[in-house]
Design goal:
With 170 residues, the protein is α+β, with helices and mostly antiparallel strands. Helix content is 29%, strand content 21%. Strands 1, 2, 5 and 6 form a four-stranded mixed β-sheet that branches. A four-stranded antiparallel β-sheet has the order 4-3-7-8. Helix 3 packs antiparallel against helix 4. It is flat, with a radius of gyration of 17 Å.
Length: 170
Amino acid sequence: ALEPQPDGGRRLATLMHVLNRHLYVLTPAEKFATLCYLSLQADRRRVNYCNAGHETPVRIAADGAVERLSDGGTVLGAFPEMNYDVGEMELNEGDILAVYTDGLVDAVSRTGEEFGEDRLIGLLQDVRRQRPDQILDAVFQRVQTWAEGVPQHDDITLVVARQSGSPLSS
């Protein structure tokens, strides 16, 4: 069972609300930003997060089960007053957490088919027992093979973290 972090969720929700308001005031009406803020507390096996319109990070459990980190709200800067929800999840030994940009899932093949979230998640499930650097290599290699030399129109970014061992404190 997760122990609530004192005020952690409220502080993160407030931060996102303030960021949204500042971006709304400081940028042109047609501009906005996506952001997924994650606070990893590895010693307690906990992640607090807020997703503001970004691609949905995923936790792949050691047994292959998938959890999408979708709590949050809409993009930042598009509307003057927005509230954001904060999610919390636990990382167990062997679980991986993957955060990525849309350039990864939007990568296209010669036939114009996108790599897609389902293909990415399936690949992450297949390689979940490997080290994070090996997971990154496997994903980037598969996307490169998928694209068959087709130039990509967006950045491709992936961050992978793995929970290993037991928590340092309870």
